Amino acid sequence: MRARALQALLLCEPDEKAAAVAALLQAWQDGSVKLDAHTVVDEPLDECGASALPGRPATPRLVAPRDLPQRSPNTPQGHAALIHAVAHIEFNAINLALDAVWRFPGMPEAFYADWLRVAGEEALHFSLLQAHLRSLGHAYGDFEAHDGLWMMTAKTAHDALARMALVPRLLEARGLDATPPMQARLRRAGDERAVQILDIILRDEVGHVEVGNRWFRHLCAQRGLEPLSEFRALARAHGAPRLKPPFNLEARRRAGFEAEEINALDQPY
What we know:
Layout: H1 2-10, H2 14-29, H3 76-103, H4 109-135, H5 148-155, H6 160-188, H7 192-223, H8 227-237, H9 249-254, H10 259-263
């Protein structure tokens, strides 16, 4: 299962990657693929000796967040660009879930099963957004995007604890906060199909963040660490972005954040 997750991660064509993830998830569920949790797998390198991960298409062109054009969702181009931005997040989320499956040896079987399920749900999200984008006369790759989610994934490649702390329960959890305001903008633009897709994404992302919270706490308990102080230390060490309100507190509670963590959301690390 871990070897096939890495093979899927290396795929560049988005629809092919999504299909490979769906096939792997089905194979795991029907028992036709097994798990070797303990083998240490070497990261594949390109011809220059750099990481070959993740596999992704030649477009979208990746730029710094500050260089992304500001577009109004009330124009056809701006509307499509907003859907594209969400599709880009979901494509990256497929990659980070697959990366968790192959990269970290020696975890319980449930860890790999959780992250493979997450990859499958992210692949579904991407496919829904890709289809909707095509209905608007565009496709994934038509607009610029930034690489913040994968950059933090790469920064935390050395340690499952840092990965759980800073990718699902920090960066992905921002999606819980951002989705309702985005739905309001799309509803004002008359795009009820996009609102429906975001309902599915928000429902599933609560579960994805809960997975991150659960395995973060598992690893903290295993290492004798206090979760909140360890999270804040990791956020400082890795230059994590500050969180800013508004926060979707109800979704964050359902995703497993405790009262002390919620009270500290907007405090400096």
